[in-house]
Design brief:
Layout: E1 2-6, E2 10-16, E3 31-37, H1 39-49, E4 54-61, H2 62-74, E5 78-79, E6 82-84, E7 90-97, E8 99-103, H3 112-122, E9 130-134, H4 145-153, E10 159-163, H5 166-170, E11 179-180, H6 184-191, H7 198-210, E12 215-219, E13 225-228, E14 234-237, H8 250-265, H9 268-283, H10 291-298
Parallel strand pairs: 1-4, 1-9, 2-7, 4-5, 4-6, 9-10, 10-11, 11-12
Antiparallel strand pairs: 2-3, 7-8, 12-13, 13-14
Helix pairs in contact: 1-8, 6-7, 8-9, 9-10
Length: about 300
Amino acid sequence: MIYTVTFNPAIDYVVRLDAPLEVGEVNRAQGEDCVLGGKGINVSGVLAQLGCESVALGFVAGETGAWLERGLAAQGLKTDFVHLESGMTRINVKIKAGQETELNGAGPAIPESALQQLEAQLDKLTEGDILILAGSIPASLPQSVYERLLVRLQGRGVRAVVDATRDLLVNVLPYHPFLIKPNNHELGEIVGKVLTSDAEIVAAARTLQEKGARNVLVSMAGDGALLLDEQGQVHRIGCPKGKVVNSVGAGDSMVAGFVAGYLQSGSYAQALRLGTACGSATAFSLGLATKEKIDELLAQL
Ligand SMILES: Nc1ncnc2c1ncn2[C@@H]1O[C@H](COP(=O)(O)OP(=O)(O)OP(=O)(O)O)[C@@H](O)[C@H]1O
Ligand SMILES: O=P(O)(O)OC[C@@]1(O)O[C@H](CO)[C@@H](O)[C@@H]1O
């Protein structure tokens, strides 16, 4: 079974403006939508499109948390969230006004007792299961919290996928995650350098592999992606053609496609193709990638 964990789920409030955003002024929206989000939850959503069952784990709180949980159930996704006693699941504001501006909330505090409930759920994972840890953590938690979960899973044959930034990601590397997916900017932040060429990206990816990551997938938005696989082979792919509508969740969709592609084919090249088709299918859609759009783009790659 595949399990996704979203420490900090969100309702994404997507606002469309027909003029540039004016900071400090009253801006009137052309329209708005509420999308159920958070990185792990998005991964579960795209996995479902690809016919892969998953269970979405994580923490929800308050009325917004109840809304999220109801909505995901209505979409047919399996969830098993820990319910926090105080606070509310955040609402992240995504402004589409030519450029995309995002305002992501801090999220509710997660007490030690709730964290232990998640650990008890993860104790049931067995050989062959896949655990996907994706997204930020609320400010109340230390940057070692993903590491804490992976320490507990060691030696049980569970493959971990981690999509996180900075120390949250770096701290898990000694536990040999099956896959990490920084984008090129996040990778640059980790190695302390702006990465401008494929050669620099490969070199930076190798440093993370030397620290323990098995496969390093570096996404580069409209410039495609680069995979350094566990055999040390570099795969480079561009993007299919299309009009970008909303790139929120493109990276999560890529993670879902990569994992599903690898499970279906055992081939890293094929996993990268499906990951790319899923990432771009989301970038070219209002919401997350659909099976139909993914298949259309896969044919171009
Ligand atoms: N502008 C775009 N045009 C075509 N494909 C895109 C575009 N943006 C993203 N994608 C696809 O999605 C993949 C992941 O995108 P990106 O590098 O933006 O991930 P990310 O930074 O993790 O995104 P997010 O945090 O918004 O989910 C890319 O490798 C590409 O396949
Ligand atoms: O604040 P985080 O956890 O880093 O990112 C949260 C988020 O931006 O990620 C998803 C897109 O990848 C959105 O659904 C959500 O709002």
